[in-house]
Amino acid sequence: MSEQVPxxxxxxxxxxxxxxxNVVTVTVLAIFTAMVIGGLLTAFTNTAVLNAWGVFFSSxxxxxxxxxxxxxxxxIELFEGSIFSPHTIAxxxxxxSMSTALHDGYLSSxxxxxxxxxxxxxxxxxxxxxxxxxxxxxxxxxxGESQWIGGAIVATYLGYGVSMPPGIHxxxxxxxxxxxxxVVGGAVGLLKATTGAHEVIxxxxxxxxxxxxxxxxxxxxxxxxxxxxxxxxxxxDSDSYLPHLFGPSLYVNVGFxxxxxxxxxxxxxxxxxxxxxxxxxxxxNPSAARVAGVNVERNWVLVMVVAGGLAGLAAAAVIQGTxxxxxxxxxxxxxxxxxxxxxxxxxxxxxxxxAALLFGALYAGAPGMESITGTPGSIVDxxxxxxxxxxxxxxxxxxVYRLRTTRAxxxxxxxxxxxxx
Amino acid sequence: MTTTATERELPVLxxxxxxxxxxxxxxxxxxLLFGLVDILVLGGYSHHGDAMFAFSAAGTKAGxxxxxxxxxxxxxxxxxxxxxxxxxxxxxxxxxxxxAMGLVTFLFLxxxxxxxxxxxxxxxxxxxxxxxxxxxxxPIMLGALTGVVCSRSGIVNxxxxxxxxxxxxxxxxxxxxxxxxxxxxxxxxxxxxxxGALLAVFSIAYGVDQVVLGVVxxxxxLGLTDYMFDAVLSPxxxxxxxxxxxxxxxxxLLGDIPIIGPVFFNSNIFLYLTYIALFxxxxxxxxTRWGLRTRAIGEHPTxxxxxxxxxxxxxxxxxxxxxxxxGIGGAYLTIGSVGAxxxxxxxxxxxxxxxxxIFGRYSPIGAISASLLFGFCFSLAQIMGxxxxxIQSNLLNMVPYVVTIVVLAxxxxxxxxxxxxxxxxxxx
Amino acid sequence: xxxELKGITKRFGSLVANDGIxxxxxxxxxxxxxxxxxxxxxxxxxxxxGLLQPDNGEILIDxxxxxxxxxxxxxxxxxxxxxxxxxxxxxxxxxxxxxxGHEETRPGxxxxxxxxxxxxxxxxxxxxxxxxxxxxxxxxxxxxxxxVEIVKALVRNANVLILDEPTAVLTPAETQDLFRIIRELKxxxxxxxxxxxxxxxxxxxxxxxxxxxxxxxxxxxxxTATEDQLAALMVGRDVQLVVSxxxxxxxxxxLAVDGLTVTDExxxxxxxxxxxxxxxxxxxxxxxxxxxxxxxxxEALMGLRPIAAGQITLNSRDITHATPRRxxxxxxxxxxxxxxxxxxxxxxxxxxxMVLDVYDRKPxxxxxxxxxxxxxxxxxxxxxxxxxxxxxxxxPVGTLSGGNQxxxxxxxxxxxxxxxxxxxxxxxxxxxxxxxxxHKRIVAARDGGAAVMIVSAELDEIYALADRIAxxxxxxxxxxxxxTVPVEELGKLMAGSTDAEAGAPGPPGPPPSQRAAAxxxxxxxxxxxxxxxASKRPGGEEGEK
Lengths: 421, 428, 545
Prior knowledge:
CATH topology of the largest domain in chain C: Rossmann fold
CATH architecture of the largest domain in chain A: Orthogonal Bundle
Order of helices and strands of chain A: HHHHHHHHHHHHHHHHHH
Number of strands of chain A: 0
Number of domains of chain A: 2
Largest sheet of chain C: 6 strands, mixed
CATH superfamily of the largest domain in chain C: P-loop containing nucleotide triphosphate hydrolases
Mean pLDDT of chain A: 84
Shape of chain C: globular
Largest sheet of chain A: none
Oligomer: heterotrimer
Number of helices of chain A: 18
Number of domains of chain C: 2
């Protein structure tokens, strides 16, 4: 059947694989291209650089160097803030003895960047799964924010409003967060199942509605506002905090493990269960699924309930892991980030894990980067969006870098066909 | 003659389609709910006193209507309950049903406004409500028109939000930097075209799913404008983020008509541009060769291809050119109203524009009407917020978004979009 | 105008769809292109019409070379095309569809609707193609839509008209009407290229016949050639013209349908008070032009469409309100009309598609967990059993050919030995080899005791397979007949006459009612054609397409 493939040495195979434009290559190149554009943007919105370029012809090398340094500086600081900073190793070895090193926290400061990355990645992974799972079923869940808020409300309330024995309290709050998110997600699924309303518009509207609802809850003391004038909630009980994984100086907590477990769960659900089979069938061809007996509407509701639950878990991880209280802006950009993480991970649980770690790294490094280089942290948002755009269109990357065959799949035509009922 | 003749006499369409009981009782139940709310909530909780409605601009005394608040609420509620009974037991044609729904909504609004203004010293300025509606709706209207042309051409444009945002940003920065309002307006329009170009290229040439692409574009524009706001606009806000704004001017004669004049004909250039845009798109789509071909490529692109119409080229052109409408709509948000650019200025208007387009059955006039409905919700919430009602402002802010969901849920599935919408055209 | 194609070659990757084709169409002639599905007829016509560019070869008009890069060029050269799947925008009027692409305009780009209407009326009159310029195309019956397509081609002054499988959607009587139009066009000097896979029609209307097989012209024939000769040329070997089957042994009633009525949300009645039985061990064939409710009937039987009235019983159990899943589990196998849209999930593997409606039952799943091993084992067994040609059970099923895809569906539906098999257009778009295979398996299912219900728009298939024929027209069954029924009688039933009028075979019965004639737009004096003489062989019709 297949032609005799001549035996090729390994390095040649690897080279061809890289040249061929498969998924890994395209992703790496997409990230690289985004970094280049981001670097240009950083450099040429920096006053010093612009001034230097204003007098370009008098000292061209200076201008170019400055631009380069500014751009590279951003990436170096991001790296040091998120993965590993050589200074910390140096400092570690400068200590007199092992025990001082441990005692004064020099050892843990080596791992602080990675810990922060994992910490930031936790909600991104969970909300990314909340987008990726429905995506496999043909739904585009942009409501991560509203589902997150739903979970946050429940988790926070259970955290301060109800008292329980220590071990139980954490678990109940986490479960409560899950349920809160699941309810909001389920509402979207129910609306789509009964009326056919497209989930893109409904979820975005819900995002605004839940944000307003949260602000409302935090404006009245008889609701969820803590004593005082600020629209924030009371602190949750300390026995509902998520325990740290590696001691008090590293912030990464059990939430990270929960998020990894959730990724495994979603993988198992999609590939090893009948429910996942139905989800994927609906995602690829709803008419054939219907003819085969699958109850499409029921599955829509189910997948959105699970997705909402995942987003709610993300909220619990944040509230119980780092914030310990709920504010009116706590949801931050989790909604949008979820989408970019899911798209970068191509909607597969494994990919979402890596994507969450990458973007988690960006977020972990951003504050440090901003304080050291002066570039606003929102450059990270631009990088995110650019990476996703390039990943979503492999033909563009292939055209730019003159790659060869067409084995990488971009974001395929899954969603637009059912756009209007 | 034979039996076949009589058998086939019955026209096939006269059968009442089977309707589930849920749908049958939904409308009367909803009317019942509204009626009860009118009486028990609005009537029951209203302050004592009269509600005053002013029908001309603030300051003049002419044209005030005074209604006893509580009684009016009861009356509205009673009429609504009567309508509920009629709807439940009297068969009505589709038009009559819509009229009934409109009546119930109107009565509810009257009751609501009475309740709002009951016993207050300041009258409720009705013209203000209408004026604010018109101008708040501008970005929605222009965005919806953009959506209509794109959808009719077969491309789903979720990126309207991004078009609005980029339009707002560019208009602010260019006007502020150059001092020239018209240049700013032009740049805002071009911003809309740029996003449209990205949408067209990535979806047509690179085959990216249009819904995903639209959301990603919105994310990109949001990130870019936020970053530029942090990096460039904030530090240099006096030079780069303090644009002038267009001032209103009244159209002679038309602007002097009582009530209608100030609402429709006394505003800045953006409202007038919207009128022109509506006319151009409506006439264009249904009475010109361009419109016929556009509708053809959205319904049956293969058929259009076989008669020699260049489907892909037309899609590119339409999406890019119509982007200028959304860009202008975005420009309104800055140089047409508040001036300076702020983060996430478009606050969901782009998505509401999409809902308006669907609600308006993909026709320009329908989309405009639906946009006005949403604008009305926003302005009502705003005015009620300023009038010290017991409803907290956050809850009021929710209303337009809730209304969008309700409308969408009720209308989708019954509105058929262009058949090839969202489906990339591949030569067979 | 003489049209010549010289050495046209077109490749799609490694597939050679057209291989050095030479063709000459003389003016005022009907030149038929005969070939089975996949022979390359449509590709050739797409090349001629500018929708595809040939890799080699040239097109000559009146001995002068012309380059055709787009449909516009083809139209300018005087070539018009009526596609198999109509290229009409459903929501436009007839006039709008006809003028699309070369609209009559007033200054400013405004449409001149009056002139467009006048153009349509003028052409209608000239060629006897009655159409109403202001009618919405989606409301028109299929036969009239075809006329609109013809008017569309003629309005651009076509000298050569390509008709691609034009009779696929027509009743026998409407086909006669089309032939009348063709003859009038011929008389006016227009040449016709008539593409078909139906031997009898080609014999009836063509002046010359070119037979295509696997991209090459394998022979030219005159219309006087016999069916056997033509069939042999088409397929390249001796074709079994009949499906050999033993007489049916009907047992108990398996499917009983009583008073079934199906409407849609607009109130339109698709199935109108239908009643019929299917017994185990027999094949009931539903004949009728598509669009008369057959699709809706199948969907209603499978629970995919709500029912307004009536009852459906399977082996005495009432399944009228059962979910599709319950019906599948009760022993119904369903081969849907559109295999790619409704029958298979293209992105799923062959193995997954083979368990598409049983994945939630033992042994493929226990509770919520899938048993991947069992799914693989099933595929490994069924692939050879049903002769599915694929390199691996893990290939996406979308990469398989049409015939193999249909075999996957057969493997799935027949694999769990259904009590009732519903097959809708089971061999549409398949090559002869696959068609033979599918027919064999359907007959085998019947012989195994299953009740089989077939819906087909191909009369040959109905004649070959059915033990009983039911004819559907506008949602009703106009009559039941044995497979020995002559074609004109079947045709009359398909066009709406009921039992009372269609009469028995023999001397001509009472003329069909004037109303029936007007309704389907035919003239009743066109009854006597070459069809009559050739068709009086019950059960001996050719079995291939």
